[in-house]
Amino acid sequence: MSSAALENLTSWHSPWSGLRAVVIGLGHTGFAIVDTLCELGCDVTVIAAEAAPDIVKLSEVVGARVIVDSDDTQRLAALEGIDPDFAVVSPGVAPTDPVVVQLSHAGVPVLSDLNLAWRLRDKSAEPAEWILVQHSGDSDTTVGLAQRIFQAASHPTRVVGFQAPPLLDALREPRPYSALIIQVSPASLVWKERFPDSPVSPRVTVSWGEGSPADSGVFFDGTTLACVYRKGLGPSESQVADADVVEGARAIGIGLDSPGMSDIGVVEGIIVDRAFLEDRANQALEISTVDELAEAGWDIPGDIPAILAAVAIARSRDVEPALIAGVLSLP
Question: Based on CB atoms within 10 Å of each CB, which residue in 117, 193, 270, 298 is the most buried?
């Protein structure tokens, strides 16, 4: 299969059945890839340097052939006779893995887990909006708080990805979600950088400038609405400037200082939004106050950046400030 032919496989309902797929790597996300491809009717072969016995057994139960060998030569030999139509790489596998290199040299289209998931996001309902959050010391607080705000606003939401259930599992659930908040690890970012043409277009991306694969805009590429970045921390501001976003997407800076137009920050102890309102040049929306957050038990100022990022995510879907403040009052 050529890369051009693979571009036609853009839906869960595309003709995946019968295609030969190689999955490289077999951790929790790797098994989600295997399980998904087997459900689609693909002929799946897994090649991994290591894997837990229970995951190997589950992969075989769902119909995959599994080769686990730490020897590079043996893993390469396992490719003989397969002639795969495409391959999918688990996020923990390095781009220099010899199986990945061999398949790439042979012209086999190689997908990341994010790219595969984007193609399959329409299984049972209107596709959920994607919000990508780069994992950092603050991101666990951000994604958990954003999910709580969305749930309070009656927007069914799930946190998936790094240190959470696999994204592909959520896509296959019968319950529709209006948003998926996807935590991505540095390993996933490496693969996003490796496949810059990957058709992944999240509504919002959040980066802290930590653990970035390169000083480039790759993490923010494809964003349709808002690139949220931490002002003055790492290369994220320059990444936003370099990003290949969808026309109309804006950069939203967060910081502990007074926010400029299109930013979210703190003015005289008041958390304000100057990003998601019509007259952002002259007005600001009050979200909460630092004193109110302290009274509610938040760590001040340690939790402020994570809170600001969650506010940005919530405001991107027009959640009312009063509702956000109510959730913030219950940390």
Answer: 117
Question: Is the whole-model pTM more than 0.85?
Answer: yes
Residues 125 and 113 in one domain: no
pLDDT of residue 136: 87
Whether residue 133 is found in the same domain as residue 24: no
* 3-class secondary-structure state, position 20: strand
Task: Output the CA angle 266-269-271, nearest 5 degrees.
Answer: 40
Instruction: List the domain range (segments joined by +) for residue 16.
Output: 3-117
For residue range 134-152, list pLDDT tens digits in order.
998 899 999 999 999 999 9
Residue 42: left if φ>0, alpha if ψ -120 to 50, beta else—which one? beta
Instruction: Please state, in angstroms and as integers, the Cα–Cα distance from residue 301 to each residue in 34, 63, 262, 308, following that order.
Output: 43, 51, 22, 11
- Are residues 227 and 308 located together in one domain of the fold? yes
Amino acid at position 313, single letter: I
3-class DSSP state of 131: strand
Range among 118-127, 209-218, 306-315 with highest mean pLDDT value: 306-315
Does one domain contain both 86 and 147? no
Per the structure, the count of domains in the chain is 2
Q: Residue 253 sits in a domain of what CATH number? A: 3.40.1190.10
Are residues 224 and 203 in contact, defined by beta-carbon separation less than 8 angstroms?
yes
